[in-house]
Specification:
Layout lengths: L1 H26 L6 H10 L36 H11 L5 H13 L13 H36 L4 H15 L2 H12 L23 H20 L3 H16 L2 H8 L4 H13 L1 H5 L1 H11 L2 H6 L5 H11 L2 H29 L10
Protein name: Microcin C transport system permease protein
Organism: Cereibacter azotoformans
Keywords: Cell inner membrane, Cell membrane, Membrane, Transmembrane, Transmembrane helix, Transport
């Protein structure tokens, strides 16, 4: 097992390097880079994605001798020295390969630089947005597991009954409803849209958060997160519930279960003493990867609807503004954590079922 873990750890390096290479290469072909963004703001021009007006046809290409003030939209009234200074400040005076290698060297030392447009380090910016993502990711994952696993077990035990039929219909309907549509429905019904104003419309805490008692802060926190968490969790029940049900059905039909029942063991002892560990292998061992996908994926639409400033909105705004330090810094960190969570999932497989030995695989 130790050799297997070592191989997986060594594979992280080329995998993460490949992820960064592909994304860095793609950004070289996307119009409207950081310098164009700055120049468009200085010149008051809203569209930084226009082609450079060269006075020719649409198919005319720029010559290698193009001056610095002709390469960017909105730079007509600015001196070439200012453009060159911007390029140097953002590091665009270097060739792409050198910029990429410098970036990777800094990232290997966990130096992620500073945002181009926010005057704050990437690490501080991510930490600032982290509470929202922790809230949505943690509670959504926990609620999905706490509801789906008991429901899936009950559906397996009562397979083919009316309970199994109508619960399957309910969770499939919930899965089919788009998350943003359900979030809007919750706002209309329970956040003062047209009916009841039981929950707040925005934010994680109230304006008087600091003056509240400890119990008051706990109540205020859960009061604010109820609707966003429900909206982000509703579609997660279907897959996890059906996976739990099918896993239990497969195990219940095996010979060792019939043997346990023949010995006179109670149904609860059979299910939770014998079947549970084998049936829950896939479900529980996948918890780290599921949590990471929910946590770091960030729900842009949910955060926007409920006015939450989390990693989802941060990633979207960084992509629109071409804030490369934020884009690549978060990509590196979250990619690294995702790969490490894959190894942790394998370790959980072995912990749950010691008979599994990844080290013996060819």
């Amino acid at each position: 097992m130790g050799a297997y873990i070592l191989r997986r750890l060594l594979l992280i390096v080329p995998t993460l390097f490949g992820i960064m290479v592909i994304n860095f290469a793609l950004t070289q072909f996307v119009p409207g880079g950081p310098i164009e963004q700055v120049l468009a703001r200085l010149e008051g021009q809203g569209d930084v994605f226009q082609t450079v007006a060269g006075g020719g046809d649409a198919g005319t290409t720029s010559t290698p001798t193009m001056q610095a003030d002709e390469r960017y939209v909105g730079s007509r009234g600015l001196p070439p020295e200012f453009i060159a200074q911007l390029e140097k400040q953002f590091g665009f005076d270097k060739p792409p390969l050198e910029r990429f290698l410098d970036m990777m060297w800094n990232y290997m030392r966990f130096d992620f630089g500073e945002s181009y447009f926010r005057s704050i380090s990437v690490v501080d910016l991510v930490l600032e947005k982290m509470p929202v993502s922790i809230t949505l990711g943690l509670w959504s994952t926990l609620i999905a597991y706490l509801v789906s696993i008991p429901l899936g077990i009950r559906k397996a035990v009562r397979d083919g009954t009316s309970f199994d039929t109508w619960t399957s219909g309910a969770i499939i309907v919930a899965y089919a409803i788009p998350g943003f549509l359900f979030a809007i429905l919750l706002l209309v019904l329970f956040a003062g849209g047209s009916y009841w104003q039981w929950f707040p419309l925005r934010g994680l805490t109230s304006d008087n958060w600091e003056s509240l008692s400890l119990w008051g802060k706990i109540v205020d926190y859960f009061w604010h997160i109820t609707l966003p968490v429900v909206a982000s969790t509703i579609s997660a029940f279907a897959t996890l519930t059906l996976l739990t049900k099918n896993s239990f059905l497969e195990e219940i039909r095996k010979q060792y279960v019939m043997t346990a029942r023949a010995k006179g063991l109670t149904e609860g002892r059979v299910l939770y003493g014998h079947v549970f560990r084998n049936a829950m292998l896939i479900v529980i061992a996948s918890f780290p990867s599921v949590f990471v996908s929910v946590f770091f994926g960030g729900s842009l639409i949910i955060e926007t609807i409920f006015s939450l400033d989390g990693l989802g909105r941060l990633g979207f705004e960084a992509a629109v503004a071409r804030d490369y330090p934020v884009i690549f810094g978060t990509l590196f960190v979250f990619g690294l954590l995702g790969l490490l969570m894959g190894i942790l999932s394998d370790l959980m497989y072995v912990w749950i079922d010691p008979r599994i030995d990844f080290g013996t695989r060819g």
